[in-house]
Amino acid sequence: MRLDDINAYYYAKNFGKNALPEFYFKNKFKKLKAYQAKCDAEYLQKRVDYYLKLNSYFELSEDAIAVKDYKRTKGTGYYLDLKEFLHYFSPHTKFAYHFGDELHINPNPTLFKARPLTDTNANSVLFKLNKRRHFRWVKDTKSFTDKMDSVVWRGRSHQEQRRNFVIKFWDNPSFDVGLSDGINTNGQFQKEFMGINTQLGYKFIACLEGFDVATNLKWAMSSNSLCIMPKPTRETWFMEGVLEAEKHYVEVKSDFSDMEEKMNYYIQHPQKAQHIIDNAHRHVVQFKNRKREDLLCFLVLEKYARLSGQKDFLKFA
What is the enclosing helix (H) or strand (E) of 41? Predict the structure, then answer.
């Protein structure tokens, strides 16, 4: 277990950082800008424009909050993830944000953790929120060929697609699936908790969307197992929208009718399976560069402040 996995330590560390004097953040800002000068500018711009699609002036919503008025409400992790970068902006600079798993699109550009994959989602600006829970990676020492010829999944029962999946494969010996609660299934189709290390023993990890995205997709794509799932309908900072079927993951129909067929195909074609796993790793690796990820978070907020017409929005410019 990492120290950051202990709530008391994580919150004490991060609230402590926020209480540090201004010169600490000014020095961090200088280092961030110095690092930016060394980065691939085209790559940075591509990522920033993916998260904030708009490229022309927009009006701030009436509920946008000034940095000086930013306070913790619900979601301490969300609060800390945004607060980390607000130190670089002037007290009067405003941002509209929404904390939680909701996927609605606001009338004015708003920072969200997730958004629907549609052509009309530009007002939902993706930001790296709740990253402690979602951006986790694994060190998988077992090769695909050495794993069990099965699909594994554990999760909550709140989403109909998840319930249908478990019910469909409950008695199938090639699937080790179960709900972590029986709230929506009259107590049925429950199985014991299974940790990530145990799940890594299976060739296939099902990644099923919940209130927004599939929480396990990120760590599963960093493993030596194949992610198997329907086409994503939502996306986060992880850019689920750029993932390609049979390149980054194994795509199945929304009713899972072809899942067993797809599973058997890749069991029989391990080289093709490995090619997908390698591509998944290449997608994941770009999110492991902490310095660049921090820079991108800042650049998204910088673009937001600039396009919303705010003056002198940087604190240390």
Answer: helix 41-51
